[in-house]
Amino acid sequence: MTLLVISPDYASHLLPLATLATAWRDAGDRVVVATGLATDPIVREFGLERYDLALGRGSNARVIRAEDQPAEESDSLRGFFDATRRGMVPTLAYQARERLTDLMWDPVDAGRRTLAAVDAIRPDAILVDHLAFSARLALQTAGVRYADVVLGHPSALPVAGEVYGYPPFWPAAFAPGEDELTELRALCERVSLRFTDEWNRTAAVLDPGASGTADAFREHGDLVLYNYPAELAREDGRMLPPHAFLGSTRREEAPDDQVERWLASVSDFAYVSFGSFLSVRGDVLRRVAEALAEIGMPAAIATGSTPPDELGPIPEGWLVRDYLPQVRLLASARLAVTHGGNNSVTEALGQAVPLLVLPFSTDQFAGAAAIERAGAGRALDPNTAGVPELAAALVAVRDSSNTALLDSIAREQSARPGPVLAYGLAGGLGTPTS
């Protein structure tokens, strides 16, 4: 069997997809990852083949910095980072306005190159990142069957009554005004119409006989795989398409002697990371570090694009680096502080680690609300939470989270790992063309 994995050229997207692919790799199957050049080292670390397929203008191998991107992407990132400092609604509005260039980049050419990859590789099964819209559009237009992997809260694939980019719910710490919300939803609806027009125009170029869609954001593959714990979605009240929950895709990491020595010397520590993008918010990382110091809790902090000295004085015995083996550290952490990214959330909950979520963008707000509702952690506004409020929340997460739920999620994911589930479901999907 041959598996084709299609991923944007970003580490945070490729890592869970490559981890799913290890089930095929370990079964002796051929695995080809169609992605860009920046993540080639990650593909090789997993022992997989790479087919060159760029699906966007930006990329990153581990940590993203605006200055390392092409000029247009750099400007877009700087605008996004500035928007996160103004709050939830300005950030979501900025992302909505960037949507066409962000998610539908050069769609005709990207679609044709995607179909060329399918023709060259002749896969028996295909896994595609849900956000690879141009690739998914091409596959659907050509009648190629694929499994659609949704990385994030399930609202990343909107259902009836929802509009992409407008959170169906958010944590209590956020209190946007009704006028703000009305304007945001109207903006998201206008963007959705423009995005759908572009989807339909591209489909017609790729296949003049292609049928149009009323909402491109609600389109999905033959099989929808949510990389998310089912336990957190059960009370959402959302009518999902036919799907399966994978729970988590905890990846293997190379041994790190410094980390192992540190783990042997510490207990009851917090793991802190804002991921590839939001690590630029050094002001928030500093307040988190000060709050942890205030409650006397050791920490391992992945600073990403924030220079470590921006955190202020670091207590002796803390582990602070730009990049850390997240899965390994979460295996021993007492709690985690995160922006609410999919990898951080699923890898923490898969190891029964409660969360303090400081969401900045996209589906992070809905995900933070689900965590709070289930008792798997707390959520605060990263722009307004001061050190005392952060310290109190850290103590609450550490001492009063729903341990029964966390243990249940961890047991389920241990018994039925995401890659095993994906292999059983997507392995027999096949990719016949019409």
Automatic annotation (TrEMBL):
Name its GO BP terms in alphabetical order: antibiotic biosynthetic process
Q: Which UniProt keywords apply?
A: Transferase
- Write down the Pfam families for this protein, in alphabetical order: UDPGT
The entry lists its GO molecular-function terms as:
UDP-glycosyltransferase activity
Which portions of this protein are annotated as coiled-coil regions?
A: none
Q: Can you tell which superkingdom this protein's organism belongs to? A: Bacteria
Task: Report the SUPFAM superfamilies cross-referenced here.
Answer: UDP-Glycosyltransferase/glycogen phosphorylase
What CDD domains does its record include? GT1_Gtf-like (cd03784)
Record-linked InterPro entries:
Glycosyltransferase_28, UDP_glucos_trans
Asked if the keyword Transferase belongs to this entry, the reply reads yes
* Protein name in the entry: UDP:flavonoid glycosyltransferase YjiC, YdhE family
Instruction: Please name the source species.
Output: Microbacterium pygmaeum
